[in-house]
Every structure is written in structure tokens, then in C-alpha cells.
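Example record

One chain of 165 residues, shown exactly as stored in the release files.
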Amino acid sequence: MFMGLLSLYMEYGEPQVKERLEGMLAPLSIYASKETYLAAVRQGLPGPWTAELEAIALASIYNNPDGSVREKLNREHQKLILRATWEARSQDHLGRVRCPTLLLPSESSDPMLEERMARKRAGVEEAARRLPDCAVRWVPDSVHDVQLHRPEVVAEALREFFDRL
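Predicted C-alpha cells for this chain:
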């Protein structure tokens, strides 16, 4: 889901988004400690930090003998995934989807992100237009990992989506 929306965002979003996203994946995949890693993850997640979120975060790292930790999916592989997503142009294939589709895009109420949200809304509207049977449920106050930030909203949206099938 994320990669498809990322591809749409790159298509309809900011012109330099590919370079900016690749820059975010600069090689820093080793953290001084588990606590340093968790602090970095917490910083990127809005809302309350829970034991469940911590368990999910910890499942994505390896503990090194010296006490440092590194991500299981290293930055080079993250870059390969991002590059493949960029080159796949999934938006060109949306019309070929033949099953009901639910889009769960994240939504921010941060006034600093108004322009970005406007571009995102346009991209999601375009995706919904291209998908033959599409439902859209915006997930408020979240970033791209909506299932981590707002699991209750995602669960409700999935129940409603499957109930209508």
C-alpha cells in the first residue's frame, strides 16, 4: 500500500521528491543503542507511544555484540525498493485492477503541511478515479504507517470495507 501511494505522490507531488526521499535513506542504519533507535522511531510517529509500537519497532532491528543495533532492511535495499517503486510507475496500471480496492492515505492537520496535503489529496483522487472500484478512507493525524499510528481507524475501515463486499 505505502509503495503504491508513494509512487502516486512522486508522480503528482513535488518535482524533486524522488531525490529527497533517496536522501532520507542516506547510509545511517547503525544506531548507538536500542534506546537511540527507539528515540528515532518515536520522533517519526505522532500520537502516544505504546508497548505494541515498541515491539514492532524492535522486530525490525538486529542487536550487535557491541550494544549497537542495525535495521534488518538495510539502507541499500531500502533505496532499491524506492528506486523500483519510482520506475514501476504503478499509477499507469491502476486501471487494470479488477478487485475492490481500499486506499488508506494518511492525513495531517498540521498547517505547515497544507500544500503537501493538497498535492497528496490530488494524487489520491487521481488514483481513486483510475481504480474501477475504489473506496478512500483518510486516516487523520498519521503519517505513512497508518496501521501503526491509528490501528483502530484502520481496523474500522477494513471492517466497513469488507462488510460492503
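Notes: Strands lie at 30-31, 61-63, 69-71, 101-103, 106-107, 134-136, 139-140.
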